[in-house]
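Reviewers of the previous submission asked for a worked example of the structure-prediction workflow described in the proposal, so we include one complete record here. The input consisted solely of the amino acid sequence. No template or homolog information was supplied to the procedure at any stage.
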Amino acid sequence: MISNNNTLTILYGSRTGNSKAVALLAHEYATHLGIESEFVSMEELDFSSIETIKNLMVTVSTHGEGEPPVAAESFHSFIYTNALNLTSCKYAVLGLGDSSYRYFCQTGEDIDNQLKQLGGQRQSELEKCDIDFEEKSKNWVKNTVDLFKSNLETKEVKVKDNFIFDLKLEDGVQANAYKAKLLKREVLNGENPEYPTMNLKLSLKDSGLEFHPGDTIGVYAINSRLLIDKLLKQLKFDPTYSIQQGDQNLMLKEALIHHYELTQITPVMVKKYAAVCNNALLDALILDKNALATYSTDRNVLDLVIDYPGQYSIEEFLSVLRKLMPRNYSAASFDSENPEYVDITVRVVDYEKDVRRHEGVCSSFLSTRIEVGENIPVFVERNERFQLPDNNADAVIMISAGTGIAPFRSFLQYRNLQQAEGKNWLFFGERNSQTDFFYKDEILSYQEKGLLNNLNTTFSRDQENKNYIYHSLLEQGTEVYNWIDAGAKIFICGNKRTMANDVKNALTDIISSNGGMSKTAANDYLEQMRQSRKLQEDVY
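From that input alone, the workflow returned the following structure tokens.
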């Protein structure tokens, strides 16, 4: 690493490549201006050199519930656990995230605050970028590099062509996604279920895509034309109005179908809408953080424009919307002998709110708007935070609720194929044992053959007093602790709001009561398990 008073160090921590692309753009722009610049991944950074860095730009994403991406974990931990002196370091941070998550850009916040705490000289306020990050991040790159340039010596550059601000994104635009044929669609919980849940089998034949247990399958869906028609009617917008979408002209209706997020809203998006809407009631709502979060939870864009009407142009309205993102589903199968097939488990989102029907964009697409035999644009995303141990002799405890069973089906199929010696314990929770024990026959067959050593199921509606999965954990507390104490790895998959926190609280109680620890010490123990990957979560 070549750091001196005139070097601009551009550090990135990336999961899907977006933070890396922003950092690379900053490096290329700095070089174009004649600034001595180095472009470094947090994974490759020599931590002993951190105190020598004088000028620092950081780009970093956030994973899941406010956690750093794998590539940033060690750096994040290092700056929080070492008494560094960064009083000579000027810095600026850009965080990438998804405002539909509670801890939006949390890793960026963490790093920005900790660099300041260690004496660093913040050059600009933390920039937070949502999923439509491209333009905002490009502006940040230009403004921030220009800011550092004013304090750095530059060398003469031979070629001074106009610099093109272009992000070199690694992953997939929808056009580059593989078109997987839908081979089979099966409802897992009987006829006319209250919450339909499906298994879909997809063909990846000749795709070149590889996946492992724990990885996710990204699906590109499109919006319902019925929803678009209702929205355009409410807004009194001309569906044939021509708009510029990237390098092509599209009719407004087609652009809304393919490119904009309409079935979810976030507090960030609502605030943007309020800025163009000029509605006093909405202005009052956004001042109440809790009320805004509650309103944003289960409403869509149609609800928003009905509840808080306003006068604005088509362009102003489109500037408020987030881009339509793919939905990720855990791979629910694994067969090394037939790698061209993959299953996903999908719960259909369909509910009434304020006398209006609401559907999930992807689950409705997969359940009713595409037919068996048709193609679905998909990609594979590696989930480094949710991987089976390399040692097949390690014991595994899998804790799941609802569609959280999906990755554990692939775990068990893999362990079965590998003839893994390690013990396996599955906890599964749902509503009704008669209809909601997903993949029941297959799971019971693993128990019968001895692959699945322990199986505990909890069905909340089977008795008058509702039991949940954390009750089952507490009932088995002594044996769970013995497995943990013997080195078992714990995996949790399910809804972050209704299951994950209760499970972690139950694990804390189990460790405290059986390990003779205080609650604080048990929490620390669980956190150490998380940091050492003995506890892994995939919550949604």
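The CA atoms of residues 225 and 272 lie 25 Å apart. We consider this example representative of the routine output the project will generate in years two and three.
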